[in-house]
Specification:
The structure holds two protein chains of two kinds. By secondary structure, chain A is mainly β. Chain A contains no helices and eleven strands. The chains are: A mainly beta, B mainly beta.
Chain lengths: 116, 111
């Protein structure tokens, strides 16, 4: 496999369910990201992991819980979500080097989440 | 609040014409600038990056950056129907910050 892969591609869940989104990157990058894309809104940064440490948490509700067990894998654990959380969740990776801001992001295909 | 502004469009151009997409950003210390293309139902795909003032050309695409005006643009020459997509402008600021995206401009190229 190449690039950034996300599973599942589509997920429908009730408000009381617990589910997880998975992301795996095969690019040798050391930073991984979760973005949320809703209709008519810009991509919203949720979490950033660099060298497996969470370096950014953009005021995301606690019903979203990220996990980064190593530099190739990233999870987003979901519980007691709301219908307004329905969106496309995009995982991305980049090579983060000290002092550089040339963060070219490579995205996975996304997980389309519907909360009923 | 750091912001990236784009005209949402749709921008409609005939096949073979030049499409001009514009973006402004609010953070004066921004250093890296990117254009992503997103087809309907797909994820964003990086098509251009630019880091210094001036023009950068790659095939039919030219990115232009003017840091003094906090303005970055993307020109698509000889537009094709396959260029029809949403184009996202993204900006990063000081070291350690992730990309901030605009809402995107929808381009429609008619044959």
């Amino acid at each position: 496999e190449t690039g950034v892969t996300q599973t599942p591609r589509h997920l429908v869940m009730g408000m009381t369910n617990k589910k997880s989104l998975k992301c795996e990157q095969h690019l040798g990058h050391n930073a991984m990201y979760w973005y949320k894309q809703s209709a008519k809104k810009p991509l919203e940064l949720m979490f950033v992991y660099s060298l497996e440490e969470r370096v950014e948490n953009n005021s995301v509700p606690s019903r979203f819980s990220p996990e980064c067990p190593n530099s190739s894998h990233l999870f987003l654990h979901l519980h007691t979500l709301q219908p307004e959380d329905s969106a496309l969740y995009l995982c991305a990776s980049s090579q983060a080097s000290g002092g550089t801001t040339r963060r070219e992001l490579f995205f996975g295909e996304g997980s389309r989440l519907t909360v009923l | 609040q750091k912001e990236v502004e784009q005209n949402s469009g749709p921008l409609s151009v005939p096949e073979g014409a030049i499409a001009s997409l514009n973006c402004t950003y609010s953070d004066r210390v921004s250093q890296s600038f990117f254009w992503y293309r997103q087809y309907s139902g797909k994820s964003p795909e990086l098509i251009m990056s630019i880091y210094s003032n001036g023009d950068k050309e790659d095939g039919r695409f030219t990115a232009q950056l003017n840091k003094a005006s906090q303005y970055v643009s993307l020109l698509i020459r000889d537009s094709q129907p396959s260029d029809s997509a949403t184009y996202l402008c993204a900006v990063t600021g000081q070291a350690g910050t992730a990309l901030i995206f605009g809402k995107g401009t929808t381009l429609s190229v008619s044959s």
